[in-house]
Amino acid sequence: MTHPTRRTALTGGLSLAATLMTSRAFAGDWSPSLRYPDPAVEILDPEFSKYRIFNSSVERLATGFGWMEGPVWVADGRYLLVSDIPNNRLIRWDEVTGQASTFRQPSGWSNGNARDLEGRLITCEGGMRRVTRTEHDGTITVLADSYEGKKLNSPNDLAVSADGSVWFTDPPFQISNYYEGEKAEQEQPHHGVYRIAPDGSLSLALSDLQGPNGITFAPGGTVVYIVEGRAKPDRLVWAYDLQDGTLANKRLHITALTAGALDGIACDEDGNLWCGWGSTGGEGGNSEAQDGVMVFNPSGKPIGHIHLPERCANLCFGGTYGNRLFMASSHSIYAVYVNTRSAQPL
Q1: Are 141 and 108 in contact (CB under 8 A)?
Q2: Are strands 89-94 and 100-104 parallel, antiparallel or unpaired?
Q3: What is the rounded CA–CA span in Å between residue 155 and residue 44?
Q4: What is the DSSP-derived secondary structure letter of residue 287?
Q5: E-strand stretches of 156-272
Q6: Which partner from 75, 86, 195, 204 sits 20 to 30 angstroms from 241, CA to CA?
Q7: Are 90 and 102 within 8 A, CB to CB?
């Protein structure tokens, strides 16, 4: 992928403020490994060996944030957008300068972000309880804020299918406190997964998951993976077949054992799932050992673990060739080059 695949760089809403922080700021006691291969990139199964680049280290790109979520790569602009939820802002990290700045504030306590087939930014504004689209001229269009006359809960994560439909999860996470939004009563009787069709119509695709969270498509776009973030006793990833705009054939794909904190997910071109990971704090959990990214093969077998000093909430592929994994991790943004690319065009 030597050239951007999206047609127009996002310009709407840009507020290129003074640099907020660089990779050296707020570095604490963490530093990148001086050894190759980086011991932070752990091979759990020989199958993962081909994805680890032996002389690529985990980098901390920027830090000093509140709680980072929803990264999306803007290929034609060579920058990353990430939600800093508690600070009600979208952060832009620039590949050319290596600096982070404010892209938009307030951001509606934005959470998940994606780009549609025309390169426009689609955002889950969890604190505003809506899904929006940033047009090429910078204006903001509300795509969904209610269903059957009742406000959405707090849209969390989203993915765009090959026909241009926007699929998003709607747990009540951000209306439960004043840290990630504004505390409010839940109006929807369920934790839904919704589809916004190309014609703008909104439909409820699922209502049987507790705390639906990360969502992504497998290569080819016919299989959808969805995280059930409040499943008990362990968080789960479910797989569904996409059939004519509906989800069918529900099946269990991953169980996050030992109190694994599954969150955002991304699928690569070989069908592996790269999962934001940490500990829920439950029995058997160990944040220091678990924080980072877990990688599962298409059969759901764990094959790799990228260790980070912070819990990783969400992640995406990007960079010039699409083989740079960006990890939104609590207070910081990390990255590492890997030998695979996103299942979806960037």
Answers
A1: no
A2: antiparallel
A3: 34
A4: H
A5: 158-160, 166-170, 192-196, 202-206, 212-217, 223-228, 236-243, 246-255, 265-267
A6: 75
A7: yes
